[in-house]
Design brief:
It comes from Solanum commersonii. With 276 residues, the protein is of the alpha+beta class. The protein has eight helices and 14 strands.
Length: 276
């Protein structure tokens, strides 16, 4: 009896397997792929278009104190960082016009197109400045990478300089931060990866942002380029010692030259970029 039941089960399986398979609808395939592997192309693309997920938090009211009879209020640094998250100010830059600018309604359209921004930005007035709030890190980096844009409107060219915004941004002073390209010449091929390049940039020049496509694809190994955020009042090292410590504790090392692309001048007296 048990043998006959087992035989019937096997015959049933053979019959099922013999039937032609019906192709799943494309929509079902996408759903199945997303369930099995969350990091699909659609999800990866969506991740590049959205800022890092950081939770907004309610900040309690601060008590007022008095200094020589005048009101005073102060927040902790962590609270200010939370304000930036709450206000979605992750990728904010400042646009500065020296000789006037078009109407704000025109600027919202012109900056988006002429600065070749890939995603929608929020643009508003901040006294003598333009506050540009980007949605993409790539747009923010591209804006900061050029020393100046020329906004064309009604046959006029209005130069607009881009400044990095910080929580302590002073409307009366230009920031000392600049975004520049640096080149690492004659770097050994084993150090051409993003991680070692970022490590060298971070320890010597400033915060690394990204490498260029030639470096990423390793098609020009004789010169490695990385975009960094540096302080114009800081030191600009001309070279870095790169080495490997062997198991015998012996270090194989060499000097790698650091070259800087265009770095804006900053004048301490006027506290302005590009002006004395």
């Amino acid at each position: 009896m048990e043998f006959n039941q087992l035989r019937n089960v096997n015959l049933g399986l053979v019959g099922i397997l013999a039937q032609p398979l019906r192709p799943l609808p494309t929509l079902h395939l996408w759903k199945l792929a997303n369930q099995l592997c969350p990091l699909t192309i659609t999800n990866l693309y969506a991740n590049t278009l959205t800022p890092p997920i950081q939770k907004t938090k309610w900040l309690p009211l601060k008590p007022i104190t008095y200094l020589h009879g005048e009101p005073k209020i102060a927040w902790e640094e962590e609270e200010v960082e939370q304000m930036i998250i709450n206000g979605k100010l992750h990728y904010v830059v400042i646009g500065k016009f020296s000789y006037g600018w078009p109407e704000i309604q025109d600027l919202r359209r012109l900056i988006q197109k002429q600065c070749e921004l890939k995603w929608k930005v929020n643009i508003g007035l901040l006294r003598l400045y333009i506050l540009i709030r980007a949605s993409l890190l790539q747009d923010c980096v591209n804006l900061l990478s050029k020393p100046q844009f020329y906004i064309t409107h009604n046959y006029w060219l209005d130069p607009m300089r881009i400044l990095k915004w910080k929580s302590n941004f002073d409307l009366e002073e230009d920031t000392t931060t600049a975004i520049v390209w640096i080149s690492l010449s004659t770097l050994p091929p084993n150090f051409l990866g993003k991680e070692p390049v970022f490590s060298m940039a971070a320890t010597t020049v400033g915060k690394p942002l990204h490498v260029d496509m030639i470096t990423l694809n390793k098609t020009h190994p004789s010169c490695t380029r990385v975009k960094v955020e540096l302080d114009m009042l800081g030191e600009f090292p001309k070279r870095i010692n790169v080495g490997m410590r062997k198991k015998s504790r012996k270090v194989l090392e060499r000097w790698v030259t650091i070259k800087y692309d265009y770095v804006p001048k900053y004048f301490k007296t006027s506290k302005l970029q590009g002006h004395n």
